[in-house]
Design the sequence.
């Protein structure tokens, strides 16, 4: 007996799979002008994932010959517009799709925050609607010729992560950067994030330890505000044979720069945190330069 609409269960499953494959191919075609794609992940919220995504974009875009795109798929907590100084901006529709909001000529940004009437509006969506929004961002945004696409994801390993990985399965993702803090409560979730990457065959570029130490601006002495009771990200990376990209010191000016929508790398270019960011960004660029595209290396179903 046929199901709703006259389709049997097997027919409906085939139809859904065909639609999914078609969507994956459409996204692959849309992103063929994007050279490198980087997912930024964190096991939990509050570890500085979006802050890192924003400054990775800022740092890469300092080279005016490098075209950078920043996509915020943290649907329920879109903080990128505020951090990039783009609150109140709106998305425009063109013949070739949605046009991103440009902070600089070589730095475009897209976020669900641009679709809200107010930054204080809550996004109360169930999984399917959030996944549909992610699909629309990946398929319909017209980035043009881009060197780096940075995807700021929600914390954890939710349905949105699976959807993003599946939709990008034919488009070649260079890998993931995982953000943590030194505490074991954060590292425990990072282990889950690493397990997720292995299961979906998503390469891991490396781990970044945020809020590593506090460096006194006068005497330059380092103090551990969040002591790593189990050795921090360094020991975790050694145990799991994952690259540690670097440690970013705790610096109050980072939060101030984000609140003002400015680049901390420009506000405090010689600070220990800014130097750490630049070292990490260089390692990410080197990783992307060494890894050539291999199609369909992520899960596709």
Sequence:
């Amino acid at each position: 007996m046929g199901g709703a609409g006259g389709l049997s269960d097997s027919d409906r499953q085939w139809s859904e799979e065909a639609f999914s494959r078609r969507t994956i191919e459409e996204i692959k075609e849309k992103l063929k002008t994007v050279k490198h794609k980087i997912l930024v992940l964190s096991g939990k919220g509050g570890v500085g994932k979006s802050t890192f995504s924003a400054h990775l974009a800022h740092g890469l875009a300092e080279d005016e010959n490098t075209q950078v795109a920043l996509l915020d798929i943290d649907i329920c907590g879109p903080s990128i517009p505020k951090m990039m100084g783009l609150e109140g901006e709106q998305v425009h529709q063109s013949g070739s799709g949605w046009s991103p909001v440009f902070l600089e000529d070589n730095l475009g940004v897209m976020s669900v925050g641009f679709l809200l009437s107010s930054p204080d509006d809550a996004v109360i969506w169930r999984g399917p609607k959030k996944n549909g929004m992610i699909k629309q961002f990946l398929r319909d945004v017209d980035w043009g010729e881009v060197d780096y696409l940075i995807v700021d994801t929600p914390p954890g390993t939710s349905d949105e992560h699976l959807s993003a990985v599946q939709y990008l399965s034919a488009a070649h993702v260079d890998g993931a950067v995982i953000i943590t803090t030194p505490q074991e409560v954060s590292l425990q979730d990072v282990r889950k994030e690493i397990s997720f990457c292995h299961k979906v065959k998503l390469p891991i570029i490396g781990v970044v330890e945020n809020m590593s130490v506090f460096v006194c601006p006068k005497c330059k002495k380092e103090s551990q505000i969040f002591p790593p009771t189990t050795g921090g990200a360094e020991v975790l990376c050694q145990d799991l044979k994952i690259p540690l990209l670097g440690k970013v010191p705790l610096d109050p000016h980072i939060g101030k720069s984000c609140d003002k929508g400015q680049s901390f790398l420009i506000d405090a270019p010689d600070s220990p945190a800014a130097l750490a960011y630049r070292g990490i960004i260089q390692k990410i660029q080197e990783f992307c330069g060494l890894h050539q595209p291999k199609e369909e290396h992520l899960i596709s179903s």
